Amino acid sequence: MAKDESFDITTGADLMEVANAINQARKEIANRFDFKGVVAEIDYDHGTTRFVLHAQDDYKLEAMWQVVAQRMVARNVPLKNLVRGTPQKASGGTLRQEVTIVQGIEPEIARKIVKFIRDQKYKKAQAQVQGDAVRVSSPSRDELQQVIRDVKAQDWGIELKFGNYR
């Protein structure tokens, strides 16, 4: 009997890189002329999976998002894993927007990935949900590589990582 090979499909962002990107964004916002004398804050507690942008108006909020997005890209944090909430009115006519960092594959998306793999009719590839990841196994490495190519070709709304290839 041949030994099964496998790999895991996961998602997430390195929270240390997120913290570094936010610190860089804070410094840039503090030094930019268009943010002088107005409300422009980023609230983030290290290790959490969300941060809040607090700005004077829609224009400043969007400008802050652009700065944060540039810093995240420079630090290899996938922007697909940052989910922006709707801006909420705060005190003094300011706006707050919560941004959530996706750290695991949601069960609904994981089920869609498993269903996609089954619908492709691979000879022996098996996929199963394991917590916030999807494990794919098969006796054939070539088949696993084909599964990776096919899953990468689809848009799942999040950045997928393929690891633990055994």
TrEMBL record:
Source superkingdom: Bacteria
A Pfam entry, by short name: YajQ
InterPro entries with a match to the protein in the record: UPF0234-like_C, UPF0234_N, YajQ-like_sf, YajQ/Smlt4090-like
Keywords, comma-separated and alphabetical: Nucleotide-binding
CDD domains tied to this protein: YajQ_like
SUPFAM superfamilies registered for this protein in UniProt: YajQ-like (SSF89963)
NCBIfam families cross-referenced by the UniProt entry: PRK05412.1 (NF003819)
Known role: Nucleotide-binding protein.
Family: Belongs to the YajQ family.
Protein name: Nucleotide-binding protein O0235_03950
Lineage: Bacteria, Bacillati, Chloroflexota, Tepidiformia, Tepidiformales
